[in-house]
Amino acid sequence: MGLIDNINKLFDHRIRLGIMSVLVVNENVDFNTLKELLGATDGNLASHAKTLEKANYITVEKSFIGRKPNTKYSVTKSGRIAFKEHIDALEKLLNKKN
Predict the structure, then answer these.
(1) Which tens digits make up the pLDDT trace of 44-57?
(2) Total number of domains constituting the chain
(3) 52, 20 Cβ separation under 8 angstroms
(4) Which of 20, 30, 57, 86 has its CA 20 to 30 A from that of 8?
(5) Domain range for residue 63?
(6) How far is residue 41 CA from its own chain's centroid?
(7) 35 Cβ neighbours under 8 A, 6+ residues apart
């Protein structure tokens, strides 16, 4: 097995890495909070969230608060596992001694 085999390509982009980092430590986070935390544009955040949703790493819940739309994201069990494996692989890579 290679040293980088468990590094997950879906987490290569900083926005997706940021989304997952925020969601694994919070039960759920709304769109505007994620956007502010990550310094992302609406379209950029939505696009990267869609990629993670298609991979079944996050779930998206849309609702209304009064008349305003509200989108909440949360990490799935498979997303949590994949992210942990990714972080573990990065730690092994960083701790590798020649």
Answers:
(1) 999 999 999 999 99
(2) 1
(3) yes
(4) 30
(5) 3-97
(6) 16
(7) 41, 42, 45
